[in-house]
UniProtKB/TrEMBL annotation:
Keyword Ligase annotated: no
Keyword Transmembrane helix: yes
InterPro entries reported in the protein's UniProt record: MFS, MFS_trans_sf
Name of the protein this chain belongs to: MFS transporter
Sequence intervals crossing the membrane: 21-43, 55-75, 84-102, 108-126, 147-167, 179-199, 219-248, 254-273, 285-304, 310-334, 355-375, 381-399
GO MF entry, a single one: transmembrane transporter activity
One protein family per Pfam: MFS_1
Keywords: Membrane, Transmembrane, Transmembrane helix
Length: 428
C-alpha cells in the first residue's frame, strides 16, 4: 500500500510545474467551496425561511458570472492572469462578509451579495478553465480532473460535517450568526492562502486579444447545446440540497452529515477513473453520472421525506463528479479542435461557453420559481429537480452527436499538436 502511494506521488511530481501549482491552488481553495455552495444558501434559508429568496440569490450569482467573463476578457489584455484568478478567490470571502453584515435579508441586500459572488465565480472559473486547458492535454485530462475530484470529495466529507455541527453547536446557545461570521473569517483567510500558492506558478495570458465572436463552427454549436443542458441543473442544484435538508431535516448538522454520506467512496472511484480511463471512456462515465442523477431526483420526488433527501444527496455526490470528469475534457477537446480550425484563442470559446451555461441556468432556476409562485414551494422542491434531471438525459444523445461529428472521443483522434499542424485533416 505504501509503495502504491509513493508511486502515485511520483506520478504527480512527474507532471509539469504549472500542472502541480494549479492543482495545489485548487486544492486549497476547495476547502471553502462547500461553504460557498451549501452553507451560504443555508444561511439565507435559516434567516428568511423562504426558498424563493435562495433561488433569487442564486440567479443574481449566475447573472454576475457571464458579465465577469466579459470583464475578465478585457482585463486579460492589461492584467496578469494570476492576479485575476486570485481576485476571484478572494471575492468569495468578500461576498460572504457582505451577506453576514446584512441586518435583514431583503432582496436588495441578497442581490448585492449575489452579484459579488457572481464576480468571484466569474473571475475564478474564467481563468481556472483557461489555465486548465493550457496546462493539460487530452492524454492527462482524465488524470487532472480525477485528481481534483478525489481531493474535492475528501474535503466534502470533512468540511460539511465540521461546519454543520459547529453551526448547530453555536446555534444551541443562540449564537448561530456568530458561527457564520467565524466561518466567513476562516474562508477569507483560506482564499488568501490559495492566492499565495497561485503566484508560485508561471501562468501566462492568452496571446490573442480578441475574445468576442458571433459565428462559430457547427461543432461548437453542438457543444453549446450540451452546455445549456448542463446549466439546467446548475441553476437549481447548487442550492437544492440545502433547501431540501433545511426543510425536511431542519438543521445544519444534518446538512453536513448528508453532504458527507458516500463521499469517501465517490473520491476513490473518481481517482481510479481518472488514472485508468481513456478519452474513449468519457461518454460511458457521462451516461452513468446522468442516470444516477435522474434516479436520485425520482426517488426524492416520490418519497419527499428524510430518506428521500439522503438518497438524493448520496447519488448526487457520486453523479456530479462523474459528470465533471467527463464533461470538462469533452469541452476542452472541442475547444482545441475548433480553435485550430477557426484560428482563434481558446479563451474566446471559454467566454462563449459561459453564455450557453447561463441560458441553461436561467431556465433551470426559472422552472423552480414558476412552480413555486404558480403552485407551491413544496411542489417546486419536489418536482423541479425531476423535470431537470429527465431533460438532462438528453445530454447523452447530444454528446454522442459530438463524437460522431467531431470524433472528439475516438481513440484515433489526433492530438492537439496534430490538429494545429493539420487542420485540414480534421473531419467534422
Amino acid at each position: 500500500m505504501l509503495n502504491k502511494l509513493k508511486q502515485e506521488v511520483r506520478h504527480f511530481n512527474a507532471q509539469p510545474h504549472n500542472f502541480r501549482i494549479l492543482t495545489l491552488t485548487n486544492l486549497v481553495y476547495a476547502l471553502v467551496l462547500p461553504v460557498i455552495d451549501i452553507f451560504v444558501a443555508a444561511y439565507v434559508m435559516r434567516n428568511s425561511n423562504d426558498p424563493t429568496k435562495v433561488v433569487i440569490y442564486q440567479l443574481t450569482i449566475y447573472t454576475g458570472i457571464p458579465l465577469t467573463f466579459l470583464l475578465n476578457g478585457w482585463l486579460l489584455k492589461h492584467v496578469n492572469i494570476r492576479k485575476l484568478y486570485s481576485a476571484g478567490m478572494m471575492l468569495s470571502g468578500v461576498s460572504m462578509i457582505i451577506m453576514m453584515s446584512l441586518k435583514t435579508l431583503d432582496l436588495v441586500g441578497i442581490g448585492i451579495a449575489g452579484i459579488t459572488m457572481g464576480l468571484s465565480f466569474g473571475f475564478y472559473w474564467a481563468n481556472r478553465d483557461y489555465l486548465a486547458l493550457a496546462i493539460t492535454n487530452d492524454g492527462n485530462r482524465n488524470y487532472y480532473y480525477g485528481l481534483e475530484t478525489f481531493f474535492y470529495t475528501i474535503i466534502a466529507v470533512i468540511v460539511p460535517v465540521g461546519i454543520g455541527w459547529f453551526i448547530e453547536w453555536k446555534g444551541g446557545s443562540g449564537q448561530a450568526h456568530t458561527a457564520y461570521v467565524i466561518i466567513t473569517a476562516i474562508v477569507f483567510a483560506i482564499t488568501v492562502c490559495a492566492s499565495i500558492v497561485c503566484f508560485r506558478g508561471t501562468f501566462t495570458n492568452p496571446g490573442q486579444k480578441k475574445y468576442i465572436f458571433f459565428k462559430f463552427h457547427p461543432l461548437w454549436y453542438r457543444l453549446l447545446s450540451l452546455a445549456m443542458l448542463k446549466g439546467l441543473a446548475q441553476g437549481f442544484l447548487v442550492t437544492a440540497p440545502a433547501m431540501l435538508i433545511m426543510l425536511l431535516l431542519g438543521k445544519e448538522g444534518a446538512l453536513g452529515s448528508a453532504q458527507s454520506v458516500g463521499a469517501i467512496i465517490a473520491a476513490v472511484i473518481m481517482y481510479i477513473l481518472g488514472r485508468l480511463t481513456k478519452p474513449s471512456d468519457r461518454i460511458k462515465i457521462f451516461a452513468v453520472g446522468l442516470s444516477l442523477f435522474a434516479l436520485g431526483a425520482i426517488l426524492n420526488g416520490v418519497l419527499f421525506n428524510q430518506a428521500g433527501v439522503v438518497l438524493f444527496i448520496l447519488l448526487l455526490l457520486i453523479a456530479k463528479p462523474l459528470l465533471d470528469l467527463a464533461y470538462f475534457p469533452i469541452q476542452f477537446r472541442v475547444i482545441e479542435i475548433v480553435a485550430a480550425i477557426e484560428k482563434r484563442t481558446e479563451y474566446a470559446y471559454i467566454l462563449n461557453h459561459e453564455a450557453g451555461l447561463y441560458v441553461g441556468r436561467f431556465i433551470g432556476a426559472g422552472t423552480f420559481l414558476l412552480l413555486a409562485y404558480g403552485i407551491s414551494t413544496e411542489i417546486a422542491l419536489r418536482y423541479a429537480v425531476v423535470i431537470i434531471a429527465l431533460l438532462q438525459l438528453c445530454s447523452i444523445w447530444v454528446a454522442k452527436k459530438i463524437i460522431a461529428k467531431g470524433k472528439v472521443l475516438s481513440p484515433d483522434a489526433p492530438s492537439s499538436e496534430e490538429i494545429k499542424g493539420k487542420v485540414s485533416e480534421v473531419m467534422i
